[in-house]
Amino acid sequence: MNKSADWQDIKHRIISRAPTQQAKRAIWCLLLGAPVLCGLVGFLNPITLELNSKQLTWLQIYIALFLVFATSVYLNFHLYFKLISLGRFIDESLTEMAEKYAQIEIQSFKNKHNIP
Q1: Residues 6+ apart with CB under 8 A from 11
Q2: DSSP of 25-94
Q3: Where do the structural domains in the chain lie, given as residue ranges?
C-alpha cells in the first residue's frame, strides 16, 4: 500500500464530511498543518530543540495527533451547531404545520355544522 495515497484518501474522507465550505477550508488548514509543523520541527531541531531521534519522532507524532484531534473537535462542534439549528427549524415548522392543520380542522367542522 502507498502511504501517501492512504493519507490522501483519509484527508478526502474527512473533508467530504464538512458541512460548509468554511469548514472544509478550516479542516484543510488543520490537516495540512500536521506535515508542515512536523517538517518545521525536524528542520529547527538541530538549531533550537536539540532533541534526539526518538524524542523528535514522538514530538512529531504528538503534533500530528493534536492537529487530527483539533480537526475532529472542530468538525463535531460545527455539526453540533448545525444540528441545533436544524432542530429549531423542524420545531418551528412542525408548530406552524400543527397550527394550520388545527385551523383547517376547525374550519371544516364549522362548514360541516353550518357554524359561521
Answers
A1: 31
A2: HHHHHHHHHHHHHHHHHHHHIIIII---HHHHHHHHHHHHHHHHHHHHHHHHHHHHHHHHHHHHHHHHHH
A3: 3-112
Residue type, 28: W
Which tens digits make up the pLDDT trace of 10-52? 777 777 777 778 877 887 887 777 788 888 888 888 877 788 8
Q: Is the pTM of this model over 0.70?
A: no
| Residue 66, all three cell numbers | 493534536
Q: In whole angstroms, what separates CA 36 from the centre of its chain?
A: 22
Residue with cell 383547517: 104
